[in-house]
Amino acid sequence: MGWELDFMTWGNDWWTSPFLDQVIPWLTHLGSQVAIIFFILLCWVVSRRKRSFLYLVPLYAIQTAIVYGVKFLVQRPRPFLMGEVASRFLKGPGEVMDPSFPSAHTTNAFMMATLLADWFPRYRFFFYAVAGFVGWTRIYLGVHYPTDVMAGALLGYGLTTLYIDWARNLPKSA
Question: Is the pTM above the cut of 0.90?
Answer without folding.
Answer: no
